[in-house]
Design brief:
Blueprint: E1 4-7, E2 13-16, E3 20-25, E4 28-31, E5 37-39, E6 45-48, E7 52-58, E8 61-65, E9 67-68, E10 71-72, E11 76-79, E12 84-86, E13 89-90, E14 92-94, E15 109-112, E16 115-122, H1 136-152, H2 157-167, H3 172-179, E17 183-186, H4 220-233, E18 238-241, H5 253-266, E19 271-276, H6 281-290, E20 294-299, H7 304-311, H8 318-330, E21 334-341, H9 349-361, E22 366-371, H10 376-382, H11 393-403, E23 408-410
Parallel strand pairs: 17-18, 18-19, 19-20, 20-21, 21-22, 22-23
Antiparallel strand pairs: 1-2, 3-4, 3-7, 3-13, 5-16, 6-11, 7-8, 7-14, 9-10, 12-16, 15-16
Helix pairs in contact: 1-2, 2-3, 4-5, 5-6, 6-8
Length: 417
């Protein structure tokens, strides 16, 4: 039997054998399978949901708990590090809709075999994402590296932006800039043509954005000054347009095209990648001809209604995104799908069927099983739930591997050159 975990008013975490935890799957409360629990790895964070009421099981019956032994209690959840795809959301209901929870991927928790465990699957293990490499001890060195680099290139606005990303937002990709390793972020766009519910950089009022959006468009020279030495010298070098601190990079397609051409006049090493919503097939075609190597297109669903409800696109359609996937393949790009996974939606029968058909039709090279970071009940209230039963995230992973044997199931961007 799994023990329920909960928090008291001071944030202390307790377990109790009186109740068993339930997970949330697309609005339904379900038992947490023991075989889907993993001990919380290094780099996890535990959250207390103070606007929530604990939903648990006792003797097979669902119960709602605001107090335990006369004391007020709250639900708890975890954020798990990159590489882990959650299988269930935390079991709770809301007392109030607002304020929205900060944009993290909330994962169901349980006390199991003497440890706090999360409902998740390790989809990809990448030593580059090891939290030890981004620990506070490493950050002491990082501050010195940032200061040194800013002295060397004081006029480069993009470098100043990435310094803020590395030190203030603790962005792992931002830190790579100064450690001169792996994937280099290249944010370029202060504007967007989607109004995603879970936008990390722009939200109405005082909602829940985790960072401020870049306020300028860097020049091709500023971009190349960072990208060229990184691609020339870094291990497993990638330079990626499209980051959490910006809008849609394809809206700056002329800047991207000029930057890629400038970079490729100086080095043919490394991978130039684009993370995008994929709204324009023609712009992707032009960037491929300029020297782009790979593209990652974001989707939350294979269904137009669900896509529109989350992305809320402006002046483009879901059909344009599908054309962009096809265009990218036709022009020789390595194509990844940034699949925003939400338990009880992504793994519902109609959705699973649609995703397999989409990936097979377009011969997608990789599917990244990324957790959708959002207030769970906000998403459930807003996005139409696909038809059919939930097969479970673990079963969805097995389905992908069985039906899409040539498609890589992963979590991270990879160098393709």
């Amino acid at each position: 039997m799994l023990n329920l975990l909960y928090s008291d008013t001071s944030g202390r975490i307790y377990d109790t054998p009186e109740y068993q935890p339930l997970g949330l799957s697309g609005g339904d409360f379900v038992p947490i399978p023991e075989n889907e629990l993993v001990p919380l790895p290094l780099g996890s964070e535990i959250f207390v949901i103070k606007k929530g009421i604990v939903v648990a099981s006792q003797n097979g019956a669902t119960v709602y708990l605001e107090k335990l032994r006369g004391k007020k209690i709250f639900p708890v959840a975890a954020f798990m590090p990159a590489g882990f795809t959650r299988t269930l959301l935390p079991g709770y209901v809301e007392k109030t809709e607002k304020p929205f929870l900060p944009l993290w991927s909330y994962t169901a928790l349980a006390w199991h075999k003497g440890r706090i465990c999360g409902a998740a699957r390790l989809v990809a293990k990448n030593p580059k994402a090891d939290p030890e490499l981004h620990s506070p001890k490493q950050d002491v060195r990082l501050v010195k590296l940032v200061q040194q680099r800013l002295k060397q290139e004081p006029e480069n606005r993009l470098l100043r932006q990435l310094a803020r990303c590395a030190l203030e937002y603790h962005c792992f990709a931002g830190k790579n800039t100064f450690y001169k390793r792996w994937e280099l972020p290249l944010p370029t766009s202060p504007v967007c043509n989607a109004r995603c519910l879970g936008c990390l950089s722009l939200q109405p009022g005082e909602c829940c954005a985790s960072q401020e959006r870049i306020t300028f468009v860097p020049t091709p020279k500023e971009i190349a000054e960072l990208a060229v030495p990184h691609l020339q010298k870094a291990e497993s070098a990638i330079a990626s347009f499209g980051q959490g601190c910006e809008g849609e990079p394809l809206l700056q397609d002329k800047t991207l095209e000029a930057s890629i051409k400038l970079i490729r006049t100086q080095t043919d090493r490394g991978t130039i990648n684009l993370n995008t919503n994929g709204y324009s097939p023609e712009k992707i075609r032009r960037l491929a001809r300029a020297g782009l190597n790979s593209v990652r297109i974001s989707l939350n669903s294979s269904l137009k209604k669900s896509y529109d409800a989350y992305y809320r696109p402006v002046n483009y359609k879901y059909a344009d995104v599908l054309k962009s996937i096809a265009t990218a393949k036709q022009n020789g790009l390595y194509v990844s799908i940034n699949l925003l996974v939400f338990p009880g939606y992504t793994d519902r029968e109609r959705e699973a069927e649609g995703l397999v058909k989409l990936f097979r039709k377009h011969k997608v090279d990789m599917v990244q099983m990324r957790n959708l970071s959002i207030d769970p009940w906000w998403y459930i209230r807003t996005v139409p739930r696909p038809k059919g039963h939930s097969i479970g995230i673990s079963a969805l992973l097995a389905l992908f591997k069985r039906e899409l044997p040539k498609t890589r199931i992963d979590y991270f961007n990879i160098p393709v050159r």
